[in-house]
Description:
Blueprint: E1 2-4, E2 11-13, H1 17-52, E3 54-56, E4 63-65, E5 69-71, E6 78-80, H2 81-93, H3 112-118, H4 121-138, E7 142-144, E8 153-155, H5 178-187, E9 188-190, E10 197-199, H6 213-221, H7 244-252, H8 279-288, E11 317-319, E12 325-327, H9 328-336
Antiparallel strand pairs: 1-2, 3-4, 5-6, 7-8, 9-10, 11-12
Amino acid sequence: EERECPVCARRVAAAALEAHTNACLDISERASREHEDEAQLRAFLLNEERRASMLPCALCGADVDLCAFHIFQACSHGFCKKCLQEFIRKKIAAKECSIACPDASCHQSIAAKDLKDLLTPEEYQTYESTSLEEVLRKSNNLVRCPNKECSNIMENIGSTATPASAKETGSNGEPLSAEAIKHRDQHRFRCRACQTEFCAQCNATPYHLGFTCQQFESYGKARHCRFCGDQLKQQQRSDVCDDPDCVSKNADCCRKMLPCGHHCCGIRNERVCLPCLEADCVKLNAQQQKSQKQQSQQTGDDFCNICWAEDLRSAPCVVLGCGHIFHYKCVKASIEKRWPGVSVNLAQ
């Protein structure tokens, strides 16, 4: 009589079934153990392979996968990318233009290629700009044009002191002092790219001829005569200097302050004040009154088109029916001289 083995499902003689079943069980247990051993071995080898691709980061102390690890070309020191990115960003924020390897025993600077690999394009551009600014700040020979649309960089090769012309005067109308001449020779630049004239020490545009930077700052903070621009003495309460010509102009000038906070440049006792001649106010008024046919674009810096000797803010002015603005005394003198034809030509 034959029976089926419960392990291998083979039919064997009933007398041999027990021995056959035990043998099948032994074979099955050995195969199972071998399978488990093989799985453990496979897991061990996989873990060893993974460990072989991990490197320790000296900054954070963690084992990092090789693909998240960066090794510097110059010194061969390596760290995880995350730590390096944080390290470099802090250095850029501190405006350091030369960033050294984080390893305490290494003084090698990080190469530009490594920085490009670790930073975003925007971050690397910020680093380049910061580095350039630091180089310019520390250098005595490099100068940048203050014109934002230009930013041309020039080299200061030095110059030999040149004597001032007998007729050369500063912005204040005074002859140049020896100190002002020295400052001019060292710090006055004209950009060859955009022709901007500026001071290389304080970036003032245009250059403050006749002043050192410190003197010009003090001059700018001081009170000035509203007509000639000369610096007023501390004891003077009026906004006009003691020059007889300025005193005469003040006698004819309007004393009112316009809503914008600037002086009215018209004449005294006029019924309607002259529009403000400050450049910002002229531009604002032009935008607000586009519908007007006659709208002057003249500013206080423009010269009077009759005398061509002084700008408009240097004397009381009047606006004609055509919208053009002239010095009051220039218009008055032209009318008093009479005219040869049927019309008055104030431009002659």
